[in-house]
Amino acid sequence: MRFPVFLTLAASLVATPVLAQDGVDPIDVIGELSRRTVRQLAHDPREFAEHAIRQVFQVAADGRLTAAALGTTEGLNRARARARILGDFLELDLDGDLQIDAAEIARIEAHGNATARQTVVSARVTLDADGDGTLSTAEIVSAVSEKMESYRPHDTALRDILLFDMDGDGSVTPDEIGVAVRLLAQSPALARAARLPQAGAGKAMGACNMPTPSEAAEVVFVSGYAGDAVSNIALSGFDRVTTSAELEIEAGEGPVYVVATAWTPVIWEVTGAVDRVEAFVGNVHQSRAGVVGLNKQRVHLVTTKGCLPDYLKAADNAAQLGAQKLLERRLGRDVERVVSFYDMGRVAVPSGDHHLSPIPDPPEDGIYAQSGIYYRMTETGPEEIRGGPDDPTTALRARVRGELNRLYPGGVVAFAEGDVVTLGQARSYDVLPHGAGILQLIEAGALRGTKDRRILIAEPIARFPAGMSGSFRTTFLLGEGVPLPAGNPQQSEVWDAVTGRCILGALCPQ
Question: How many CB atoms are closer than 10 A to CB 386?
Answer without folding.
Answer: 7
